[in-house]
Specification:
Elements lengths: L1 H24 L11 E5 L6 H17 L3 E5 L6 H8 L7 E6 L1 H8 L11 E11 L1 E5 L7 H10 L5 E4 L5 H13 L4 E4 L5 H7 L5 E4 L1 H9 L3 E6 L24 E9 L4 H16 L1 H9 L3 E2 L4 H22 L5
Parallel strand pairs: 1-2, 1-3, 6-7, 6-8
Antiparallel strand pairs: 3-10, 4-10, 4-11, 5-8, 5-9
């Protein structure tokens, strides 16, 4: 009798433990998702990360049958959002839209409050894209050559904006300064439209930014695009030269992709990856990404992990070769 009773209690305890594990995860993978999902992004409203996160979230909401709500946690070049997600419960209900700044931060910072590869379950890439170098439409500088000449005349006077220390925009500017052999002053922002506004009004001399916040102002004649950071010119800005036409070898491309906390169940990661791939393949999403100067590009979780690892290695080489001081 005692043995039978002990067996009953052992079985009950095991059942409760299993139920507790399911509760802690939020749901079983097979039933996922049963409630809304949060997708974090690390930059101000209206910026490239925010717009792409909302575009993807709206489309994967349709496939998952649950709302994917985009939330912003700005600061530290996107690292505050990355830290939040890295430390979140790996139940599939917390996601992040990572940007190329994730790999740049791994290269730029001596130490981060999270491990940029091991603490994430990578889901899928979304796109790849270049940046534009812009200045006030009323400014005197009309080309990269004139920018370099002005910077050499007055070393350390000209400034450039970015969406934060350790962001890809920041390192794109530092790499430009190193390769062009000039000194520029870095002015970091939290993202959004503020860097563009301050360059248009002349408070900051130049910007290195995505086409998302800059293209409307370029087309409106309020911002002058003097170069793009891709290897060749863009179809959306055919008259704007690539930086490499003046500074040989210069090229900077960035990316965005969806990730979750490490140890998110593989079944959930695969489901999310499939939905992101379907979203990126949707004609309306492809059209919008192209309008933003981006190339739509989904991937498997494994391929995204390799991409992030390669990007970190690349930017570490750039930091070392350009002798950029780590933060």
């Amino acid at each position: 009798m005692k043995v039978a009773r002990a067996a009953v209690f052992a079985s009950l305890f095991a059942s409760l433990a299993a139920a507790g594990a399911v509760f802690a995860q939020g749901t079983t993978p097979g039933a996922y998702p049963t409630r809304p999902i949060r997708m974090w992004q690390g930059f101000a409203a209206g910026g490239n990360g925010d717009i792409i996160a909302r575009l993807v979230a709206a489309k994967i909401s349709e496939g998952l049958g649950q709302n994917v709500v985009v939330e912003g946690r700005t600061g530290a070049g996107g690292n505050l959002a990355s830290e939040l997600v890295a430390k979140s419960l790996p139940d599939g209900y917390t996601l992040i839209l990572l940007t190329g700044g994730h790999a740049v931060s791994a290269a730029m910072y001596k130490k981060l409050p999270f491990e940029p590869v091991a603490e994430f379950s990578f889901v899928s890439l979304v796109n790849v894209f270049p940046f534009v170098i812009g200045t006030s439409a009323e400014g005197a500088v009309k080309s990269v050559r004139e920018m370099v000449e002005a910077a050499r005349r007055e070393p350390g006077r000209l400034s450039f904006s970015s969406v934060g220390v350790g962001s890809t925009q920041h390192l794109a500017g530092e790499l430009f300064a190193s390769m062009a052999k000039v000194q520029l002053v870095h002015v970091p922002y939290r993202g959004g439209g503020a860097p563009v506004q301050d360059v248009m009004t002349g408070r900051v001399d130049f910007l290195f930014d995505t086409l998302t916040p800059t293209l409307p102002q370029i087309r409106a004649g309020k911002l002058r695009a003097i170069a793009v950071t891709s290897r060749t010119r863009l179809a959306s800005l055919p008259d704007v030269p690539a930086v490499g036409e003046t500074v040989p070898g210069y090229e900077v491309m960035s990316w965005t992709g969806v990730a979750a906390p490490a140890k998110t169940p593989p079944e959930i990661v695969r489901r999310l990856s499939q939905e992101v791939a379907k979203a990126v393949a949707a004609p309306d999403v492809q059209k919008r990404l192209s309008e933003l100067g981006a190339e739509p590009r989904s991937s498997t979780p494994e391929d995204m992990r390799v991409h992030v690892e390669n990007e970190i290695a690349k930017w570490r080489r750039v930091v070392d070769e350009a002798k950029i001081e780590r933060q």
